[in-house]
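Morning!

This is the sequence you dropped in the shared folder:
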Amino acid sequence: MKTSKPFLWSERIRAKQSVYRFGGVWAQAMLIAIPWINALILLLALFVASNRIAITAGVVFELPTAPLQEGSQDGLTVLMFSVSRETQAGEETLVFFDDERYLIQDEEQCARLANRISGSLSIERQQDVLLLADKRVPHGDVMQFVNIARKAGAKRINVAEKPE
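The structure's back. Tokens below.
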């Protein structure tokens, strides 16, 4: 009489595993590595895209490599300085253009300044504006004037420090 070998489930499972295997050892290694490669490519794409998406509004200055000797020859001249007042704001920025005073914090006066600059630029041949600002003028006020002058039609704005 023949003795039969006892039935082992582990042997049957091992026998069925070969049916689901694809290729040799190198193919198995690739199947294991592909999800990791996909994850790395996705992280790289997100890193590159996030640098391009995060844009902060502002003005980009491309500085010359030679000593700074630029400037505008002719054009409109605007004087800007900060004064201390006993008001809620504390300090106000005044802009002088064509013998008139404008308060940069007042929207109505900024609109009049823009109209005045626009009218003067239409008369002038050059579209340049020279802004002489005091050292104490806040950067935000200078940028607000630059935006006003740009909307009024100025092509170039030369920002310089007001001589003492």
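Headline: Helices lie at 9-20, 25-53, 107-123, 139-152.

More detail when I'm at my desk.
O.
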